[in-house]
Design goal:
- The protein has 250 residues and is of the alpha+beta class.
- It has a single domain (14-248), classed as Pseudouridine synthase, CATH 3.30.2350.10.
- Helix content is 14%, strand content 31%.
- The chain contains four helices and 13 strands.
- Strands 1, 2, 3, 4, 5, 6, 10, 11, 12 and 13 form a ten-stranded mixed β-sheet that branches.
- Strand 12 (215-223) and strand 13 form a beta hairpin.
- It is globular.
- The relative contact order is 0.15.
């Protein structure tokens, strides 16, 4: 099985920087690649695709500049992007390199055949060691940049959580998504009274020395859309989150 320490090609994950955009985004790593797809390990601070206020230096633009092309398929403004992560959420996401692979990955995602696991440090302790949060998510009617349980034009959303580690004032949770709504984990955890530590939108920013929410896409497991090979790629917590976790353990 490939993991964060090496890909089946025998090459370690490698980092890429922007070469031609005026905005220099953070470096990103490729945890797995072949001629059909990439699994990218995205750092916090890197926007996945162009949007209002973030027109340059996005991951999709950087991928398009890779040798052989970073991806294609779907919306031309989001080449190859199958699912996304928030700007300040780090970790793994899969990118297609052809329209056919893009279609197959989207079908696999809709059929819940792509496992997406996250680690989140949250405030407080959930009453149960594991559970499922099932609540529709829509646009917050009061703050346009936020989402909310209910909200405008809500869509079904389901998040599973398991307690990974209990800490004095926080809990480390492992989460798995059945759906992929905007800000889903952050909104659902706030809704049950345990917002993500450091989350400036849905909780209390600045705690534990954090400059962003403690949320990391730590595992991505799927079958290769063309070969059927099982891929199980993992990403360790980045340095800023490991430092915050160490502070929370005191």
């Amino acid at each position: 099985m490939p993991d964060r320490a090496g890909a089946p090609t025998g090459h370690p994950p490698h980092q890429h920087m922007a070469a031609s955009t005026s905005i220099q985004p953070p470096a990103f790593a490729i945890a797995f690649e072949d001629e059909h797809l990439l699994i990218v390990d995205k750092p916090a601070g890197l926007v996945v695709h162009p949007a209002r206020g973030h027109r340059e230096g996005t991951l999709s633009q950087l991928l398009a500049g890779l040798p052989g092309g970073g991806g294609s398929g779907g919306d031309p403004s989001r080449p190859g992007i199958v699912h996304r992560l928030d700007r300040d959420t780090s970790g793994l996401l899969v990118v297609a390199r052809s329209e056919e692979v893009h279609r197959r990955l989207q079908r696999a995602l809709a059929a819940r055949r792509i496992e997406r696991e996250y680690l989140a440090l949250v405030e407080g302790r959930p009453r149960a060691r594991s559970g499922t949060i099932e609540a529709p998510i829509g646009r917050d009617p009061r703050v346009r940049t936020r989402m909310a349980v209910g909200g405008n034009f809500p869509r079904q959303a389901r998040t599973h959580f398991t307690l990974e580690r209990g800490l004095p004032a926080h809990s480390l949770l492992r989460l798995r998504l059945d759906t992929g709504r905007t800000h889903q984990i952050r909104v659902h955890l706030r809704a049950i009274g345990h917002p993500v530590a450091g989350d400036p939108e849905y909780g209390g920013g600045g705690m534990l020395g954090l400059e962003r929410q403690f949320l990391h896409a730590t595992r991505l497991a799927l079958r290769h859309p063309l070969t059927g090979e099982p891929l199980d790629v993992r990403s360790p917590l980045p340095d800023d989150l490991r430092a915050a976790l160490a502070r929370a353990e005191r």
